[in-house]
Amino acid sequence: MTQIKSYNFSEHEISFILTDTSSGYYLWIGFKSDGSNCALKKVSAHDPLQTYFDVDIAVDEIIKGRILSSSIYLAVSDNELIGQSYLIGNPLNTPTDFEIPDGIVEVPVDLVVKGSYVYFLLPGSISGQNAKICIFSTSGTFSETIDLTGITNASALTIDDNDDLWVVNYQDPVTLTRIYDDGGWQIATTEL
User: Fold this and answer.
1) Exposed/middle/buried for 3, CB within 10 Å: 0-12, 13-18, 19+?
2) What is the pLDDT of residues 45-67, one digit of tens each?
3) How far lies 163's CA from each of 65, 116, 160, in Å?
């Protein structure tokens, strides 16, 4: 018989949830702002009311999170930051900030982390803007922005074993875009 359990939190609406099996069974839960801060909690996957860490983050919203090695990387909505990373073992330490690069006017909708790079996807939903991918080192240093010419309303990003980036969007018709580096970024789009 299937059992369904419900858990109530005192914080505002949940904006993202992420599983963490790096050293046990945990969930990372991001809560929308209470007017001044967002909450990021590391809780037990077996009893989400058992909290291991509760961190207040001074951003407008935590949008997405990904784990790589000993860190959790967050895409955020904020006036100065596009993202942050925290140590999984002690997120109370000072985070690594990823500052919004020049010319970026949107908030990220997704991110991926691989090797020593973090890739933030910007949707291209503001009039006149293409979707973009902002690339940073995992230490927070901005590397470059890839302008996805002709792609708007991007919604999701992933990376494969060949380090090719894949973007899907909400355009009509929906497109799947492969972004790969062969001495310069190449963009190949397929309508679905």
Assistant:
1) exposed
2) 999 999 999 999 999 999 999 99
3) 19, 12, 5
pTM score, two decimals? 0.93
Q: Give residue 138's Cα distance to chain centre.
A: 13
What span, in angstroms and rounded, lies between the C-alpha atoms of 177 and 121? 12
Bridge partner residues of 137 (DSSP): 117
Distance between CA 146 and CA 80 in Å, rounded? 20
pLDDT in tens, 125-137: 887 789 999 999 9
DSSP string, the chain: ---------SSS-EEEEEEE-SSS-EEEEEE--SSS-EEEEEEESS-TTSEEEEEEE-SSEEEEEEEETTEEEEEEE-SSEEEEEEESS-TTSPPEEEEPPTT--S--SEEEEETTEEEEEE---STT--EEEEEEETTS-EEEEEEETT--SEEEEEE-TT--EEEEE--SS-EEEEEEESSSEEEEEEE-
Which of 40, 149, 165, 188 has the alpha carbon at shortest distance from 110?
165
Taken in order of first residue, the domains within the chain and their CATH numbers are: 1-100 (2.40.128), 106-192 (2.40.10)
